[in-house]
Amino acid sequence: MTAGITSRADALALVRRSLQGFATQDEITGLDEHQPLRSALELDSIDFLTFVERLSAGSGRRIDEDDYPRLATIESCADFLTTPG
């Protein structure tokens, strides 16, 4: 696991925290873990890049452009963050 992420619960919390500002807290809390983030929250490419930067900073893990497809949903983000990289 990465330095800042010690559990799946930590990863899920980081993902939801990283989405703040793109939607209301109620919308973020109500998101299904399998729902595509970009379409559900209408994230444009700049918003998505900001989200990725927040994930990277919060987890201490470098996230390359090749990794972006693995960040499609809350669940896939948590999987990515808790997989040794």
Automatic annotation (TrEMBL):
InterPro entries (UniProt xref): ACP-like_sf, PP-bd_ACP
Species of the source: Nocardia flavorosea
Domain of life of the native organism: Bacteria
Protein name: Acyl carrier protein
Pfam families: PP-binding (PF00550)
Coiled coil: none
Domain Carrier: 30-81
